[in-house]
Amino acid sequence: MRRGNRIIHAVIIALWCVIISYQSYGEEGAVNATVHEKTKHTREKVAGGRRAVDPASKPDVFKYYSGEKVLLAKEFDRTMPSLRNVLMGDVAVHDARLTLNDLSYILYHTNGITRQAGGLGMKYYFRAAPSAGALYPTEIYVAIRDVEGTQKGLYYYSVKDDALYLVRAGDVAKEIIDSSGTEVSPELISALVIFTGIAHRTMWKYGERGARYVSLDTGHAAANNVLIGNALGLTVRVNTHFNAASVAHALDVNINEEQPYVITALLKNKQSIETKGNVTLRSDTGRGNGIALPPVRPEGKTELDNVIRDRRSQRVFSGERISLHTAADILFNTAGFLGRASYTRSIWDDGTTMPLRLYVIIHNVETLKNGLYEYDPKAHALHSITTADLEGPLSEACMGQRFVGKANIAVIKTISTAYLDKGEHAYTDAHIIAGALGENAYLAAESYGLGACGIGAFFDDEVNQLLGIDPAQETVVYITAIGAV
Ligand SMILES: Cc1cc2nc3c(=O)[nH]c(=O)nc-3n(C[C@H](O)[C@H](O)[C@H](O)COP(=O)(O)O)c2cc1C
Fold first, then answer.
1. DSSP 287-340
2. Higher model confidence: residue 404 or residue 437?
3. Sequence-distant (≥ 6) Cβ neighbours of residue 100 within 8 angstroms
4. Is the CB of 220 under 6 A from ligand 1?
5. Is the pLDDT of residue 18 over 90?
């Protein structure tokens, strides 16, 4: 059965890749249009024809470094807390010096290769974090400051070789902190993990819309990084508000080809996991009292590292009914307010509220009517907007991806359009956070025995219409489909 599913899965990926490669990018006209507006999928653009993509010109998904190489161990026999316990901060504090093995563990579960497939001379490497079209634009560097078993320096993390390549020795972490406007004191840092995106890998196929996917992908990988770091008992600080040019310079990469998006700082712990207490999601839906959801329960699958390694995109949903409890558990682990800082709430060290909203299309969940709801992360409640079966309209709005309509829970992330207008930086930030929430949803689905798939291919304004929102005020950025498998 699982083998059958895999074959269907492979066929669907292939179809999806073809379906969304439309010639729909870079239209002229739209003076004042935001990047988002310009990169919306519309039926007219689709009717305009497919974007020609030559498989022979597909960019390599790896970078190659030579020189001093530090091999990373792959030992998975640690006892790890569950996703829920990590989110709740219910983990033992790591009060020893960070070791190279700890770092290996963190990097592997951030975006290491978790599955290989292929045949007929083709080999595909799937990673810990999902990636639109499996094009893997995200690269990872580590600036080591104080890690037992290795020297200070900047390293490239080669997922293919399971190794760190020394880019240059020295206190590059301090250099990055000093030059980039990262607030954390270098003395507190064991290592910095720097996430860059090579947009060309994704834009090669998806044109300008691909830029959205690069940030979403980065959010997924960065969420893994924070969660697995927290699971090990580390405080992990996330920063996206830094001077990207100076970081690119420190990494010795060309910013026009490879853009730094996120830096996480793995901090030395002396006390409990630090909380910043910033709320980055809107918690007030303005819709009055909703349907209170039951409190979160322990997961079926209890170790976060296994969950990350086993996660895959699932595109075949059984349509089976799920319990209200399961739906509530998934939503809580995706975005529920924890009363403490988790990734989604602490990423903004400046305390900015991220005006993302979470709409939820419910289909076949016990005691809930099918229809559209908004999730209030703080109250852990669902507010009903319309009761109707949206299976057909949702599939249509997701460019005919039928399995999306079959999902028991489709989490649709929107952002205030005014926020997007704050410029390029806000634009990538919104997508990084949406991607991080998407990763939480994937891991929650895996933890509670369901399957999930990130959805970047949708007719934006059809989704907006489905939600009843005015795109001049608010617009969809990302969808995660979750269902019984
Ligand atoms: C930002 C983003 C958008 C995606 N959009 C779609 C989509 O519209 N349809 C789909 O079937 N899969 C979509 N995926 C799933 C990817 O195809 C999948 O992650 C990739 O093939 C790697 O497989 P894995 O997730 O099993 O590791 C998306 C993933 C991401 C991260």
1. S-S-EEPPPP---SS--HHHHHHH--B--------B-HHHHHHHHHHHH---SS
2. 404
3. 70, 72, 73, 147, 148, 149, 150
4. yes
5. no
- Tell which residue, 348, 322, 278, 351, has the closest CA to residue 445: 322
Q: What confidence tens digit (pLDDT) does each residue in 281-309 have?
A: 555 677 777 999 998 888 777 899 999 99
Sign for the CA dihedral angle at 437, 443, 446, 452 comes to positive
Task: Tell me, in angstroms, the distance from the centre of ligand 1 to residue 217's CA.
Answer: 9
* Span 83-131, pLDDT tens digits: 988 888 788 888 899 999 999 999 999 999 999 998 777 889 999 999 9
Q: Decide whether any atom of ligand 1 lies within 6 Å of the 260 Cβ.
A: no
Phi, psi for residue 441 in degrees, rounded to 5: -65, -45
Please indicate whether residue 455, judged by its CB atom, sits closer than 6 Å to ligand 1: yes
Q: Which atom of ligand 1 is nearest to the CA of 114?
A: 27
Q: Could you tell me if the CB of 13 is within 6 A of ligand 1?
A: yes
Task: State the angle between helix axes of 424-447 and 210-231 in degrees (0 to 180), rounded to the nearest 10.
Answer: 50
Q: Cα torsion at 344, 349, 350, 354 (round to 10°)?
A: -10
Regarding the beta carbon of 334 and ligand 1, being less than 6 Å apart is answered no
The response to whether residue 454 sits with its C-beta less than 6 Å from ligand 1 reads yes
Structural domains for the chain: 2-56 (no CATH), 58-267 (3.40.109.10), 291-483 (3.40.109.10)
Q: Which residues contact 5 (CB under 8 A, 6 or more apart)?
A: 316, 485
Distance CA 74, CA 468 (A): 48
What gap in Å lies between CA 436 and CA 401, rounded to an integer?
Answer: 23
Residue with the two structure tokens 């919306």: 40
Residue 260 backbone phi and psi in degrees, to 5: -70, 130
Our answer on whether the CB atom of 216 is closer than 6 Å to any ligand 1 atom is yes
Nearest CA to ligand 1 atom 30: 132
Helix (H, G, I), strand (E, B) or coil at 122: strand
User: What would the two tokens of residue 172 be?
Assistant: 């590059």
